[in-house]
Amino acid sequence: MEEKRRQILDAAVRVFAHKGFHTSRVGDIAEEAGVAHGLLYHYFSSKDEVLETVFHENWSVLLDRIRAVEDTDEPAAEQLRHVAAILLRTWRHEPDVVRVVVREIARSPEVQQRIGELVEPVDSIRRIVENGQARGELRADLDPQLAATIFYGGIDAILTSWVLGTREDGDDAIARAEQTLAEVVRTGFVTPA
Amino acid sequence: MEEKRRQILDAAVRVFAHKGFHTSRVGDIAEEAGVAHGLLYHYFSSKDEVLETVFHENWSVLLDRIRAVEDTDEPAAEQLRHVAAILLRTWRHEPDVVRVVVREIARSPEVQQRIGELVEPVDSIRRIVENGQARGELRADLDPQLAATIFYGGIDAILTSWVLGTREDGDDAIARAEQTLAEVVRTGFVTPA
DNA sequence: ACGGCTGTCGAACGGTCGGTCAACGGGCGC
DNA sequence: GCGCCCGTTGACCGACCGTTCGACAGCCGT
């Protein structure tokens, strides 16, 4: 039954999200999924493979949506806003996915090395910046890679504060975060002359 | 001998920086310090206490330097630049400290809850933003907390890319990163009209 | 109705590691 | 020179947990 595999993966997302990967026991995942923990090894070869599968499945969905933004013909500033919106709104629909990705994987060098996909959102943002510069919409004197890293870092920091419960996270708060990021892109922090 | 305690702490920074906290064995730290692993328990009550001590000692130094920036009478934009400089340049002098703080601690909720200090740099930045707004230097329509989170996130993302080896990190690269952050604060990404 | 295959179970294994502790030794006071 | 303290050692313990594996149950083809 392929359905059990899903059960296990879904359970794993929840467990990893709430306890973190290395504090989660294989037994916890099995219990959450309602199966014996031996069964997990019928569908996956190891605990690590479960983590990688969970990660890959969810991350590639986000990646595709981010990449799709590159193909629109909106101004670069608007494209950046869309990228922010995709990531920030995911917190609303799938907080557990954000928890596990943000908190557990994005920083861990062991995983980072095995999974190249992690840098890809930054690459996507970088291309948006480069195209914006080529069209004269964005300042040409910014290093695109650096600007992309900074922008992604801003999004990531906001998500992190939601994950950690440090910041209000209702619908309006999400909209405000999106808006603030857009404003920073538009004119920075300093009062325009 | 109090000196042995230092030896152990210094060894711990190196080991945590290169292997991560939960993959580091107590024996690794002892070996790096050149002592028997039992001795570690003469100076610390647990492996966790070692981590907390390492973290606290190094983090409080950075915190004090960041807080000191609040007391200067420079323009807010300049103060933000200084905060960025403090954090980014630490990568130059003490990469291992940055590695362990950035990669190991800043994201882990277990530690996050035990150690309130982690949010303090963001608080400090927030106060700088608020004061800048009060003096009319910074845009009053930005939520200071949100702006501070975004700014800190940008710094953090740059440090992370250095830690992961994704980005060039010579003296000039550090200067460029600092400069780019300052420019983003000044006028954002968009070409000024 | 039989044999085997697939999915499922959970007891048991094996290795790892944080933490303990009895013993040692060398320096210091007497 | 004697004993005592205390920093130091490393063998050992016990728990934990990922992984294995033999058993079993239901179903399907024959």
Present the secondary structure layout:
The structure is a homodimer of 193-residue chains.
Chain A: H1 2-19, H2 26-33, H3 40-43, H4 47-70, H5 76-93, H6 95-105, H7 109-114, H8 120-134, H9 144-163, H10 171-187
Helix pairs in contact in A: 1-2, 1-4, 1-6, 4-5, 4-8, 5-6, 5-8, 5-9, 5-10, 6-9, 8-9
Chain B binds a DNA duplex (30 and 30 nucleotides) through residues 1, 4, 25-27, 35-42, 46-47.
Question: Could you explain the architecture of this structure?
Answer:
The structure is a homodimer of 193-residue chains. Chain A is mainly α and 193 residues long. Chain A has two domains: 1-45, Homeodomain-like (Arc Repressor Mutant, subunit A), CATH 1.10.10.60; 47-188, Tetracycline Repressor, domain 2, CATH 1.10.357. Chain A is 73% helix and 0% strand. Chain A has ten helices and no strands. Chain A has helices at 2-19, 26-33, 40-43, 47-70, 76-93, 95-105, 109-114, 120-134, 144-163, 171-187. In chain A, helix 1 crosses helix 2, helix 5 packs antiparallel against helix 10 (171-187) and helix 6 crosses helix 9 (144-163). The radius of gyration of chain A is 19 Å and the shape is elongated. The mean pLDDT of chain A is 93. Chains A and B meet through helix 5, helix 7, helix 9 and helix 10 of A and helix 5, helix 7, helix 9 and helix 10 of B. Chain B binds a DNA duplex (30 and 30 nucleotides) through residues 1, 4, 25-27, 35-42, 46-47.
